[in-house]
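Design request, tokens follow.
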């Protein structure tokens, strides 16, 4: 019998928990192990969980660390268990727990990671235009970065083999969905999406804010610089050196054309760009050596 750890992170979900418990009762099976992660809730979510008539594991953060940190804590706990799969669902009732099997049924020898797809499934409310555009943009960006056939990169409803769960690092503390996709692609795992139903949030509010795009871009850079330092810093260093050469070549052309009086106008800027480019490449080489040393130790 294949066992599955179902991770349910939550923050201030006291109003949703009674309905969530009823939904869990409908799908309870011996092979399911539920892991609740209370991410520093400020309401009585923790008290409700402690008194729940439900066979589950409970992890509680003393303060709110962010959704990705909560998911990471759940994955860390799942690694200790004798399970075959890990599933992550939301506590806000936007995911239908009955659809867990839709994801698990797609995992096989050819597929290691399965994401729900809201846009080819059913969204039971009118999603805000700016939110929909943002989702589409980051899904396209993640598709380009990973090479996966992605139509929805952040549904929050995911399933993976425990082998993948043991290897992903979850380096950032913000958007975990893109972290998992990028790390899985770098590690060579296979991906698939299935249509799901996505419900309207009844209680609480989304963690997404105007800061979201900036945090995601920074997080993507952190992931690549940590997992693929030579490629990341090598490209960045080469770009800086190219800009330096481009500026100097243009200024030499202007000097030969009799437009500029000096051979090189911005010698300090050009030198700094070129030297910083070389240093950036060496940072990538050093990071790559450190990663290789970790892999062999």
């Amino acid at each position: 019998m294949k066992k599955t750890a179902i991770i349910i992170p939550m923050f201030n979900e006291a109003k949703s928990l009674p309905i969530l418990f009823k939904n869990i009762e409908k799908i309870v099976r011996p092979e399911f192990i539920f892991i609740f992660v209370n991410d520093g809730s400020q309401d009585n979510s923790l008290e409700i969980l402690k008194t729940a008539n439900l066979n589950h594991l409970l992890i509680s953060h003393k303060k709110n660390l962010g959704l990705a940190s909560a998911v990471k804590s759940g994955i860390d706990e799942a690694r200790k268990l004798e399970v075959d799969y890990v599933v992550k669902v939301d506590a806000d009732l936007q995911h239908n727990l009955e659809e867990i099997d839709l994801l698990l049924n797609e995992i096989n020898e050819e597929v290691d990671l399965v994401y729900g797809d809201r846009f080819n499934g059913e969204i039971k409310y009118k999603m805000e235009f700016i939110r929909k555009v943002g989702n589409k943009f980051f899904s396209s960006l993640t598709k380009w970065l990973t090479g996966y056939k992605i139509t929805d990169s952040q549904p929050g409803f995911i399933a993976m083999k425990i082998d993948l769960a043991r290897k992903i690092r979850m380096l950032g503390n913000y958007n975990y969905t893109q972290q998992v996709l990028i790390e899985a692609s770098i590690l060579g795992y296979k991906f698939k999406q299935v249509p799901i139903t996505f419900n309207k949030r009844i209680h609480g509010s989304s963690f997404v804010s105007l800061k979201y795009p900036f945090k995601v871009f920074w997080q993507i850079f952190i992931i690549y610089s940590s997992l693929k330092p030579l490629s990341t810093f090598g490209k960045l260093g080469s770009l800086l050196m190219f800009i330096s050469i481009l500026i100097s070549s243009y200024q030499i052309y202007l000097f030969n054309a009799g437009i500029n009086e000096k051979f090189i106008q911005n010698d300090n800027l050009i030198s700094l760009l070129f030297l910083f480019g070389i240093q950036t490449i060496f940072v990538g080489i050093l990071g790559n050596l450190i990663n290789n040393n970790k892999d062999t130790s």
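Comment from the thread starter after seeing the answer: thanks! Residues 229-296 form one domain.
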